[in-house]
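PT: before anyone asks, these are the final sequences, not the draft ones from last week. 543 residues across everything. Please model them as a single complex and drop the result in this thread when it's through.
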Amino acid sequence: MTLITVQGLRKSYGAREVLHGIDLTVDDGEIVGVLGPNGAGKTTTVECIGGLRTPDVGTIRVAGIDPAAKNPELRQILGMQLQQCHLPAKITPAEAIELFAAFYRNPRRTAELLELLGLTSQAHQRFEKLSGGQQQRLSIALALVGRPKVAILDELTTGLDPAARRDIWAYLQKLTDEGMTILLVTHSMEEASYLCDRVYIVDDGRIVATGSPAELATSGGRQTVTFVPSEPIDPADLLSLPGIASATVDHGQVTVGGDAAAPQTVLAELIARGITANHLRVTGPTLDDAYLRVTQEN
Amino acid sequence: MHATIALFRNELRLLLRNPAVVIWTILIPIAALVVMCLIPGAREPLPNFGGLSVIESYQPTLIVFAATMLALQMMPMFIGQYRELGFLRRLRTTPAHPRDLLAAILALILTISLVVGLVLLTFPLLFGVGVMGRLALQSLLLVLVATSFLAVGSMLAAVIANPRVAAGVGAALAAIMWFFAGMWFPRALFPGWLATISDWTPGGAAASVLGAAAAGQPIAAQPLIALGLWTVGGFSIATRSFRWE
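LR: through. Structure below.
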């Protein structure tokens, strides 16, 4: 079932159009990432979906509700973590979670959220005394306290240490296993590869690529083969093979780039010549490569 | 309603963690009155104060002091800070509307103004100063006075976006209100033109009705009309020009 549908979304700030027609869908139980460079329109897109901004053109539905219609039911099913959100300086995490819990029909328990987001020992510290990472984790807790069906998380783990990121990822995966749907804005390819079922890459107000992180990574992405041959080999000979795009030698190590079949092609050629490939390594394309390719092409 | 109550309790807790608020709006006015009550001379009726004691003639001024500190100086600052902080915007993403937060803040400021005002009205009775029978009318007028200052404060919070500017303008306005309420110079000695201006300001009108009620004199219509106009005008400008972000 499709939970979020966006069709032909356009939005201008003054005379400058920042979204030139965005289409996206998020299915029930999916984690979908929105990636893109700064200023690409990611935050504007999710703020339109969250009803904080009104689109100029286009249709948005979140569980059948138009977010611009100020339907109070939307706020019960949609949890949002904003990129910049500050709480009153003297409130404590426990108080903030309890305050927000009072807004919802069936909130999560404060102790559970504090524990899962690693804030138990800061539960009674004032917001102004928390570190940036702790404030960030509190902000995530507040987005999740109402047991939302859909959570929109903007810059989820920016500024968190690697261990805290892993913990939060594991917690979010548990929540999606229980039926929650997540729309995630991120700069981190690692986060997108780890968490997302699908990603949309946005650049300059348009969607320039979409698919699962693995699909995107491999689409047109090249395989790289490196090895130290037992006997010298002329890179020009390798370049003449089908599907090979580059071949170089550096300090006796050969690096060959090519299509998905390239590793097999290179190995077959080496075997035919009776050459052994020592220290053989094959590296596949990454989401990083795909991201850079599509955003630079654009 | 549930959200507003939760926000009210939270705002009360945060307010009590703010020493400036507690000292200036609660402790100082009450301490000033307690000190006066302990001075026997201040309890004696004086002919040149129209038969009122020093305590009774300063009561309205202290009430105006506490109410203006809260409504004109503190409240626009709190609301401006919440707007600047993005907390009002954060609330828009929850089932609570930022309107609920404003309602909670207004209710809280009004509650504290009324509680402090009631202490200021009733405490001297323990020392035999004031007339018990006039307390009901005085309390009613206190509600009117506190509400009109709240309206003026809401107007400031709506019109002035920067919380520091709002607090500064609020402090200046509060000081002008204290002047019109006779804090530094007895109202009885104002020249005619100044008395006329004073009677149309919330501070002067408040002191006028509270003073009359304490003395057992009839309440004139003019200061009541002035307070009513400030209340209606302040709230309608506030609701029309309020900015959430």
